[in-house]
Amino acid sequence: MGFATDCIHAGQEPDPTTGAVTVPIYQTSTYVQEGLGKHKGYEYARTHNLTRRTLERNLAALEGGTDAYCFASGMAAIHAVLTLVKAGQRVVVSDNVYGGTHRLFTKVLAGYGVEFAFLDASDPARFDGEAGRFDLLWVETPTNPLLKICDIRALSGLARGRGAILVVDNTFMSPFFQRPLALGADIVVHSTTKFLNGHSDSVGGVAVARDEKHAEWLRFVQNAAGAILSPFDSFLVLRGTKTLHLRMPRHEENARAVASFLARHRNVRRVFWPGLPDHPGHAVHAGQASGFGALVSLELGSLEAAKRVLGRVRLCSLGESLGGVETLVSHPATMTHAGYTQAQRDALGITSGLVRISVGCEDASDLVADLDQALAGR
Ligand SMILES: Cc1ncc(COP(=O)(O)O)c(C=O)c1O
């Protein structure tokens, strides 16, 4: 089936009891059994929930995976995937990943004897020379918030050569624009909080595996550790994915209008959006994704300039998160990436003048007008 058909139908059948076209919220903790060892395949809701399972089947189809497992947040999904790594093993991470991922790796999991190294993965040849041995490679592309691009095909070759697992956080692109498993990744994760849900009303995460071996472990960990996505959140994300193919082109069209406007503005020093032809990762991104997404970052030169713009926007809202139909603006240095040290932010270029925009689905002309008045008169 085509992508739009999968968004709407994959993994979903009308409810067998009533024929309800929408999968119900199975809000139950347990299931009545007919006799000892005799049941309908549902025993306890941490292990089995049909609303969650339907979403998992839907997301596995959209990412082209063997199976998918949904968790209480993007971070819980990332944590579950990291249980594939044991003490004494080494994880290499593309630099400037989401601050929460950096925090989990360096402040929690490093304490269990796993070694983490953060490297620029945007040049595969240089990365190959610098990375050394690793057991898992963790990549965001585009990265958060600098929109750096990593070549998924090339990195999957480097990971395979070391017998390592390649994991791609595909939150920024969604499977509408980029399908890392088809490019050689072993596992894809998402914060479903973002584009997959798309309406800023649920927190969740998913891990999608290409092979049954990894799917089986994720299934085991989901049940063993129990950080499951609730039935109601599963219902909300399922409702979100039904319109993913309609929302993403609009997000991107608006991002193009916003990025082009900002690139011409005299008060903006630099614009980061992979769709701009002079973006250093433009060609690599175009070779592995069908669109450039809705995250645009801009360098304003100082904290004062960033504060001024963030304080003056009216239609765009100041807030953490991204991927909803409403446009959000944020300040990575003090918000999403506050978990990095100042020195780490300086080294990466996450300056105090950097602002990130998650471009929503409003009228592009209204967004440009709002940014225009917020940037005016310096
Ligand atoms: C790229 C990326 N990955 C993972 C996460 C974590 O997801 P959650 O906030 O749902 O735990 C985020 C959150 O902003 C993110 O931007």
Description of the structure:
- With about 375 residues, the protein is an alpha/beta fold.
- Helix content is about 40%, strand content about 15%.
- It has helices at about 5-10, 50-65, 75-80, 100-110, 125-130, 150-160, 175, 210-225, 230-240, 245-265, 280-290, 305-310, 340-350, 365-375; strands spanning about 65-70, 90-95, 115-120, 135-140, 165-170, 185-190, 205-210, 270, 295-300, 315-320, 330, 355-360.
- A seven-stranded mixed beta sheet has the order 1-7-6-5-4-2-3, sandwiched between helices.
- α2 (about 50-65) packs parallel to α9 (about 230-240) and α12 crosses α14.
- The termini are far apart.
- The mean pLDDT is about 95.
- It binds pyridoxal-5'-phosphate (PLP).
Largest sheet: 7 strands, mixed
- Quote the distance from N terminus to C terminus: 52 Å
Low-confidence stretches: none
Class by alpha and beta content: alpha/beta
Name the overall outline: globular
Number of helices: 14
Give the radius of gyration: 21 Å
Helix content: 25-40%
Bound molecules: pyridoxal-5'-phosphate
Number of DSSP E strands = 12
Strand content: 5-15%
